[in-house]
Amino acid sequence: MHVVIVGCGRVGSSLANDLLSDGHSVAIIDRRAEAFARLGADFAGQSIVGIGFDREILISAGIERADAVAAVTSGDNSNILVARVARETFNIERVVARIYDPRRAAIYQRLGISTVATVSWTTTQVLRRLTPDTGAIEWTDPTASVSLVERVVDSSLAGRNYRDIEEGDGSRLVAVTRFGTTSLAAPGLVAQVGDIAYLAVASATGTVKS
């Protein structure tokens, strides 16, 4: 597939090289020509100097034949503009925008624009390690109706059948990590201390009850 990336910082340059390594074609846009030095001398994609939400610049990057667009500059406003132009002008379905303000991320997620909220994600990862007994939200659907929650099983849940846990709080078990191995939930599986359970829950709940 062809991917247009806007922003050649650490994320954009790494993403471009990874996509090329996987056999995809890539065009990357940045307003500073010196930013392309991050790509390396053997970069086989297309690099374009310009404003990422400019229609003509996007066309020169091949957006009319693109399968996906990633907006990963250092500015929320620029990334949202790129995402909206890609979706609304060029009808690109797979659009991801990097957003630093989690409040904005939630709004655009609900509008159907996939976002990666850097600060929010980092905070969640740190909290997960500081308070492992608390459910951490891994993913929320664009309508904010369903979330995938990670929960470390403690003694209050150990010994109980996961089906009973599901019925008690309305969650749905998706997968379990046990002793470093993750597998899809099997019928009759019993919770053990130290299990990492991945459960689909209504986003209004967001937690798994003991």
Secondary structure blueprint with pairings:
Blueprint: E1 2-6, H1 10-21, E2 25-30, E3 46-49, H2 55-60, E4 68-71, H3 76-89, E5 94-99, H4 102-110, E6 114-117, H5 118-130, E7 136-140, E8 146-152, H6 162-169, E9 172-178, E10 181-184, E11 196-202
Parallel strand pairs: 1-2, 1-4, 2-3, 4-5, 5-6
Antiparallel strand pairs: 7-8, 8-11, 9-10, 9-11
Describe this structure in words.
The chain has helices at residues 10-21, 55-60, 76-89, 102-110, 118-130, 162-169; strands spanning 2-6, 25-30, 46-49, 68-71, 94-99, 114-117, 136-140, 146-152, 172-178, 181-184, 196-202. It has 210 residues and is an alpha/beta fold. It folds into two domains: 2-121, 3-Layer(aba) Sandwich (Rossmann fold), CATH 3.40.50.720; 133-202, Regulator of K+ conductance, C-terminal domain (Alpha-Beta Plaits). Helix 4 links the parallel strand 5 (94-99) and strand 6 (114-117).
Question: Which characteristics define this entry?
Answer:
six-stranded parallel sheet, 210 residues, Alpha-Beta Plaits, five-stranded antiparallel sheet, alpha/beta, Rossmann fold, disordered C terminus
